[in-house]
Amino acid sequence: MINKKVKSVTEAVNGVKDGMTFMLGGFGLCGIPENCIQQLVKLNIKDLTCISNNAGVDDFGLGLLLQKHQIRKMISSYVGENDEFERQMLSRELDVELIPQGTLAERCRAAQAGIPAFYTPAGYGTEVADGKETREFNGKHYVLEHAFKADFAFVKAWKGDEAGNIIFKGTARNFNPVMCGAAKTTVVEVEELVPAGSLEPNQIHVPGIFVQRIFEGAKYEKRIEQRTVRKKS
Amino acid sequence: MINKKVKSVTEAVNGVKDGMTFMLGGFGLCGIPENCIQQLVKLNIKDLTCISNNAGVDDFGLGLLLQKHQIRKMISSYVGENDEFERQMLSRELDVELIPQGTLAERCRAAQAGIPAFYTPAGYGTEVADGKETREFNGKHYVLEHAFKADFAFVKAWKGDEAGNIIFKGTARNFNPVMCGAAKTTVVEVEELVPAGSLEPNQIHVPGIFVQRIFEGAKYEKRIEQRTVRKKS
Amino acid sequence: MGLSKEQIAQRIAKEVKDGYYVNLGIGIPTLVANYVRDDISVEFQSENGVLGMGPFPFEGEEDADIINAGKQTITTLPGASFFDSALSFGMIRGQHVDLTILGAMEVAQNGDIANWKIPGKMVKGMGGAMDLVSSAENIIVAMMHTNRAGESKLLRECSLPLTGVGCVKKIVTNLAVLEVTREGFLLLERAPGVSVDDIKAVTEGNLLVSDEVPEMQV
Amino acid sequence: MGLSKEQIAQRIAKEVKDGYYVNLGIGIPTLVANYVRDDISVEFQSENGVLGMGPFPFEGEEDADIINAGKQTITTLPGASFFDSALSFGMIRGQHVDLTILGAMEVAQNGDIANWKIPGKMVKGMGGAMDLVSSAENIIVAMMHTNRAGESKLLRECSLPLTGVGCVKKIVTNLAVLEVTREGFLLLERAPGVSVDDIKAVTEGNLLVSDEVPEMQV
């Protein structure tokens, strides 16, 4: 067993620098690497490019990095729910590249799996395809999209073991698995870190080979964006 | 819940015809759809194209279809361990297309995921790339490969539920998950079929949306090709 | 005039057939789930990674880790599954989802749709909409017939940046049910109390009207 | 003359470093696992879908569902995982596997490798070899220095159909350890009792020899 455990979030994000490109898991505020984000805020590194489906809210998630003007560019599919984001985007302090959600996921997966480029129908005939190669297969039109390149992937899982194997819970899975191994260094924070051998080998969502560092995160807030409930009748 | 359960293997393979293209899961004899194969033998349909990593052995797996000359073409990565196969191949009764194993897996996955084509380094500079488009990305050479098209995918899983959700055991997983939904109709046979709701939603390997028919197979032989053991000392 | 949002959802629910996997967009489409007949089997997919969504959770039972694409807390039904975003869009792109219902700002008579961007205004992003509309074989748009300025949203050509080309098959508005055909919008049904002329007046795109246009049953 | 197959495996085992994920081909490479130092952490991947392979099972404990790419029954160690073929080749293609050790029929001095096809003979297929050699950054070939006819397998150019181009970094044969360099095969080590001239005599490709070539430690 190759041990991927690191002692702290400090050690986990070791090597992050100004100007780097990061991938960050999560959909909305669900399944985001809370501890890593807080550490990046603390380190105050700047000029970051962040590949993340969303951009957090004003006072949580990637919103915390935005507040401190640490992000130069966001690559996302949807960036609502964030006033400071809007302000920086409209004032052109922040560069924003919006891409289809499935393309975002597949470009991560391509980076993970050593596929340099693939064709997808998403965005054909729209401004998303501007300047990109398009091609017809079996009478349907497709756009050529490329694998992402990133320095770090920050991933949040539910449980993990010291070998770096991880398991997700519910829809907190989302982009996290496809970002593992899609960057030069993959850092995973988990709610519970267990010894190697504790997880059933058939149930592991992402094998440890895609993970360089793993640690147990502290004090998960797991904020709910849209608490929607019904009354017991 | 959309119920995918069919009563028998007869019903499961309903619609198979001469000249069709099938995908069949399994690596060697591990994780092969034993019941479906036996039924295809029984139906004696001919001129089949089979996409399967291997071709079975003389008296088991796809070897059974070969014995009855039901297969016109095999698309595989490795076809050793089968004398009848060799005879038919050398006598040109059987057409064989050999492709790299990772390309085989990815072409299935592409069919499943609506990716018409992708680039892979496998086979660049070899006869596998003959007549195919090649392209350089970041100084490395790649070959353009296309999604498979198939009429039926025959898949073997360990457990499944009536909604078509399935779970695999050990290395019997192999090509089975990526063939689900990669053909017009996906037929899954399982060792144990349970009611919907019995499987933990986080542990499902392939969601039922990729499966059209599911049934509990009978009398699994699960033959071992290379029984390799050590003595207790 | 015409249907309420709930009634639009109710009418669209009739398009949901037994055995369908359905992806519902945010807004009116979300309401469709409430009106699907309970004697048919349907599963709802949400592109953030869940199949087999159930109703909202009871108060106090919500789980931050179980949400839909609208970021709302949800529950799951027996037979549900969770998966990652790549597999989720594999379902969508690979045409395993049978029906996509989503909102729109504009639909053109050739089936083009615009629903993600208004130049000059804050752009929030397309989310999964471009993947959905470029992949689905069966797309129904749920929207009001006109925008807030009273202008038609059913056009000869979209004026806003496109989300997808030639993909919309059917449109249900507060006034009408329409099918996208080669010649334009074919008027299939009128909302109760709405005349063909009412619909003509607010349909900029080519409208095809047969002798008798039945009233919607909602 | 030179090393036994076990000794070749033993020598290659020294190339396996702490923290490596390793894919072992069929034949001599499989033996390497037996000789890796037990004070370092290494995990073995098999392309049919397992990471963290252990030794062969005890008699009576073999499981038909748990095999390696050579179709042999195996066991797994704590921290092991199972996965599908697409993810497995994602590991390989995505260069997450640190070292690939495989056999060859021929290696050319530019790093080309041929190991899957002899025209006119029964062709069994390339299996995962083409994916492995086109992806791995670190490839070691384990083979005999000559074929059964006594002819060199280290050539100027491969005569057999290629498996991959310019990919082999190191070769360990029964006679020598060689590195593939821009100018040809650089002789790094001699097998015990084997002279530089012995090696020259059976190396058809360009052989680069420094003044002193140490003997292998096996």
TrEMBL record, chains A, B:
GO terms for molecular function: transferase activity. Gene3D superfamilies: Glutaconate Coenzyme A-transferase. It comes from the Bacteria. Keywords: Transferase. InterPro entries: 3-oxoacid_CoA-transf_A, CoA_trans_fam_I, CoA_transf_BS, NagB/RpiA_transferase-like. SUPFAM superfamilies: NagB/RpiA/CoA transferase-like. Belongs to the 3-oxoacid CoA-transferase subunit A family. This is CoA transferase subunit A.
TrEMBL record, chains C, D:
Gene3D superfamilies: Glutaconate Coenzyme A-transferase. SMART domains: CoA_trans (SM00882). Keywords: Transferase. Coiled coil: none annotated. SUPFAM superfamilies: NagB/RpiA/CoA transferase-like (SSF100950). One of its GO terms (molecular function) is transferase activity. Belongs to the 3-oxoacid CoA-transferase subunit B family. This is CoA transferase subunit B.
